[in-house]
Amino acid sequence: MTVSPQPDITGALGQYAPLYKILGYRFKNAALLREALTHPSLEGGKQYQRLEFVGDRVVGLVIAEWLFEYYPKIDEGGLASRHTNLVRKETLAEVAVSMNLPEYIHMAKSTQDNGGRQKATILADVCEAIIGAVHQDGGYENVRRLVRKFWKPYISHDTVARRDAKTRLQEWVQARQIPTPAYNVIERTGPAHEPYFTIEACVMNMTPEFGKGKSKREAEQVAAQKLLKRLESENKR
Fold first, then answer.
1. pTM, whole model, 2 decimals?
2. What positions carry a catalytic annotation?
3. Are 40 and 49 in contact (CB under 8 A)?
């Protein structure tokens, strides 16, 4: 099903009925759901950024308390790394697909034609916005049930949580008593709703590496991974 960019809100219940069934939650205020599904490329109405802001904080809290309960013998560091994996963009995008959200996102035709429904950044943002909308419409307990339902396959996925590239680079320099890596924005291109960043990762006076991505975080991770790979290779010689 492809949803038209600007559906009639009065018919929202019928339009979103399959999504309500998937989520296991029926909105009292369907306009909140519409807002959570509206990409910034559509002008003239509310878009998902404000609800995404709420959802980001709420899902973080739900996951944190769940990890605390699920792993009673793991220390703070282990909980933190698992938390990072569970709220990372890639996980959020996978959850969005399991919610069937790509079918319901309202976006400009140009964004859709550019693969907007498949972009991990957009899917992650919409996933957080949906969670924010449920929180605003139905409160914390409904969010808690929703998150535990869709994150159940992930909560015990990693026996040992994977560390991201920035964390591993930080550990590499600390082990050698080298100052903390620096990340600098070299370039930002694209429209406000779809920026593209080039980030430089630097360690002391060593040759830097560069990463590109649709967010600063993504570009920093790419740059850190490239720099770490090179440093580890040079260190073996």
1. 0.66
2. 56, 128
3. yes
Contact between 96 and 131 (Cβ < 8 Å) = no
Rounded Cα–Cα distance for residues 51 and 32 (Å): 9
The answer to whether 199 and 210 are in contact (CB under 8 A) is yes
CATH no. for residue 53?
1.10.1520.10
How many Å apart are CA 158 and CA 90, to the nearest integer?
Answer: 15
Tell whether 22 is covered by a domain: yes
- Report the amino acid identity of residue 186: I
Rounded-to-integer distance, Cα 181 and Cα 195, Å: 24
Pick from 155, 187, 217: which residue ends a domain?
155
Find out whether 134 and 57 touch, Cβ atoms under 8 Å.
no
User: Average pLDDT per run of 10 along the chain, which is 237 residues long?
Assistant: 41 74 94 94 89 96 96 82 86 94 92 88 95 97 97 75 76 86 94 89 92 88 90 74
Which residue bears the tokens 């969005």? Answer: 96
**Do 35 and 87 have their domain in common?**
yes
Amino acid at 109: K
